[in-house]
What we know:
CATH architecture of the largest domain: Alpha-Beta Complex
Bound molecules: zinc ion
CATH superfamily of the largest domain: Nucleoside Triphosphate Pyrophosphohydrolase
Radius of gyration: 19 Å
Oligomer: single chain
Number of domains: 2
CATH topology of the largest domain: Nucleoside Triphosphate Pyrophosphohydrolase
Amino acid sequence: MMFRSPIKHCRNCGTTVVYRIPDDGDTRERAVCPACDTIHYENPLPVVGTVPHWGDQVLLCKRNIEPRWGKWTLPAGFMELGETTEQGAARETDEEAGALFEMQGLITVMSVPRVGQVHLFYRAKLLSEAFNPGHETIEARLFTEDEIPWEEIAFRTVKETLHRYFEDRRKGRFEVHAFDIV
Ligand code: ZN
């Protein structure tokens, strides 16, 4: 999850773009094509995932991909066109953990302006302890709060979401937590 590299070529005609403020009252620099005048707008991307839980344990996946290879994470990834946030979160959970689960409520909404992303996590109730992780995962296993390798968690949004999940679980009431990662 890194900042996207700048656009180099026009998506319409392939000409090398220039970064400038378009003449249409815009206030930001955009990749503008000097040949066909196409303006390429770049906007934040949604990342969607789940907190799969089983009793007092949560499911974490050990990453088999960069960045943060070998670190632990919750199932999450970029939303695809044509799906809802909840469908995307369920798809990522299926792909990365291969678990049987039931989707539940939203738990965190986090803006991450440094990388141009918004992360949303849902709770997901696991229906079995059998996991069949995909190629992006080395290992998927359950952890109690005390067992979580906090120093080996891949992303701050995952760590913050896990903290909110266990806090709410102790209170016996789940809420939506909206905050910024700056
Ligand atoms: Zn062009």
